[in-house]
Specification:
Blueprint: H1 26-45, H2 50-54, H3 65-83, H4 102-105, H5 111-132, E1 143-146, E2 149-152, H6 153-179
Antiparallel strand pairs: 1-2
Helix pairs in contact: 1-6, 3-5, 3-6
Length: about 180
């Protein structure tokens, strides 16, 4: 294997799978940001085993990379399926009434738990992307009900970008504590 120019980065800059395009619309721009943060998050978890993914940050926090995968699956489902597509009556993922923090507390070092988390996250991302493919710039100001208040689709998409950006920052710190790798 050739020596890497940037051994502390996930990939060499020329091999980065995240593609920047020139979006031609508001929706395309927001979708590109969201897709890039999703890819970044996935890259930060790449190559880790179940124990590493489930490793908690610092007590008493329950945060782990695996917990973030489960949390982000729940967030994708809640916003894209329950709110934006109007299925609010469906239960939230990873959210039983007896442990609302189950996305994190249930993130245990078990390969089956890891496989399920990634499977559910990928399923929710694909479903969200399918719905996003039906949205145009004319829809961005359309409001949906969020806890009895109108919220434009644009604001929800911006929130999703913010959600991933925040958690990619958490993932940077978690990953660095596991094996010293820092992100790009």
């Amino acid at each position: 294997m050739a020596e890497r120019k940037h051994p502390d980065m996930w990939v060499e800059p020329e091999d980065d799978p995240r593609v920047d395009e020139t979006p031609d619309s508001e929706i395309a721009n927001l979708v590109q940001y969201l897709r890039r943060y999703r890819q970044t998050f996935e890259m930060k978890c790449d190559g880790l085993d179940a124990e590493q993914l489930a490793r908690r940050s610092v007590p008493p926090s329950t945060m782990s990379l695996l917990g973030l995968v489960r949390h982000l699956a729940r967030v994708e489902h809640s916003w894209f399926h329950r709110v934006l597509q109007g299925h609010a009556d469906e239960p939230k993922l990873f959210n039983p009434p007896d442990d609302p923090d189950i996305a994190f507390t249930g993130a245990v070092a078990d390969p089956a738990v890891v496989d399920e988390a990634w499977s559910v996250w990928r399923e929710q991302v694909a479903a969200a992307d399918g719905w996003l493919g039906t949205v145009g710039d004319d829809d961005m100001a359309r409001a949906v009900d969020v806890d009895g208040e109108p919220a434009p689709i644009r604001d929800i998409l911006l929130h999703m970008v913010e959600e991933y950006a925040r958690h990619c920052g958490h993932a940077d710190l978690l990953r660095e504590a596991i094996d010293g790798r820092t992100g790009q």
